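@channel sequence for tomorrow's demo:
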Amino acid sequence: MLIAKLVNYSIIFMFVIERLIELSVNQFNKKIMISKYAAKIKFPKEALQMRIFHTLWFVSLLAETYISGKMLTGFWFYFCVSVLILAQALRWYAIYTLGSNWSVDIYQMKAHPIIESGPYAYIRHPNYRKSVSKLLKIILVTIQSQNSKPMFFSSAYIGS
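structure tokens (generated this afternoon):
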């Protein structure tokens, strides 16, 4: 059980660190968008709610791991981790393609370019699709076991 908890904590902290990197990229891009496109946050209350949601989601994953310590094993563990890594790679490709136009917030901008290269040539909003996929895979990887019911909000997406 200790090994399962350590694996879960490692996966969760890896994504916490990644989220912190995303927020620093967001701050860097925010300055560029404001100066270059006179950008203004369109939904500031919703942006705050999303930050609170993400924070509580990670806290609930940590609590769930601390209390149960169980996780998927075998094929399903490796399958979910593989899809999670692929989703993250595609997400960062989308972020890279957007460059300084990427942000975690929704901005109203004047005369900004429409990006139609990279994954945006094939999928309208690849970043959102990869984010949803990431959330689901982290839940599946860190869930207590295949037969147990979810304990907290983090697992509520996949039902009981």
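heads up for whoever presents: The two ends are 23 Å apart (CA to CA).
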